[in-house]
Design goal:
Layout (H helix, E strand, L loop, with lengths): L1 E4 L2 E4 L4 E7 L14 H14 L3 E5 L12 H13 L8 E4 L3 H9 L4 E4 L8 H6 L4 E5 L17 H19 L6 E4 L8 H9 L2 H4 L6 E2 L5 H7 L7 H14 L3 E4 L2 H14 L2
Parallel strand pairs: 3-4, 3-10, 4-5, 5-6, 6-7, 7-8, 9-10
Antiparallel strand pairs: 1-2
The structure holds 9-methylguanine.
Length: about 270
Amino acid sequence: MVLRCGKYSVPLDRPLLMGVVNVTPDSFSDGGRFFDKDSAIRHAEQLVRDGADIVDVGGESSRPGALPVSVQEELDRVLPVLNGLKDLGKPISVDTRRPEVMQEALKAGASMINDIDALQAPGALETVAASGCAVCLMHKKGEPETMQQAPHYDDVVAEVRVFLKNRVEKAEQAGIGRERIVIDPGFGFGKTLEHNLKLLRHLSSLSSMKLPVLAGWSRKSSLGKITGRPAEERLPASLAMALLSLQAGATILRVHDVRETRDVIAVWQEYGK
Ligand code: 9MG
């Protein structure tokens, strides 16, 4: 099985690492350290040297409480970084929910769209369908500004599964082949710690959809809840969650700490031999 990402065909016979590059002033987990274009470019290059299979560039924070930015602001943050990464040699994903940004990002060389809104914005399905890029369809309940204010589900696993199944159907109907689709339960997006853990325990209900599953736990507030530690001290907890995610069937890990998570994957692979 491969993931088709524009000009790249990425084999899925081993777990993949998606390295995070936030080009935002307020990202909760790295404090906007990579906000300026040159630092973001250097960081992406370092992530690839560390073993990232895909680099995920984002110009709008989706942390709990974050406010949306304008399309122009998002473009101004993301495009210069994409233009500086033309020779990266690995697929670049752009974390956006706006069709205008998707379109420009794809023109500037992005090979994947990571959409926390699962292509629900008008025009998003068509924009992705018209390209050869891959897409990550993520579940989220509510909007980043308010999503962590008392999220409620009758059955979180069933609700997330039904939502993703429906979005995959819509994507396929729009002409996006399954070999281009990744699904993601969206840990931390309108979910309590208990919801997140339940989703992780039942991740097989998503992997049974026969699509690659992306898991993003890196430095998230649920890990702060468990350990009592701030974002910059959540590496050990993030690595524990990376291992549990692999064990539960995740195929792609979205992480800040690529070098360290690569070792987790190596240990997990050796264990499974
Ligand atoms: C942008 N972003 C932040 N967390 C994420 C997660 O868990 N999954 C995906 N696909 N994107 C995320």
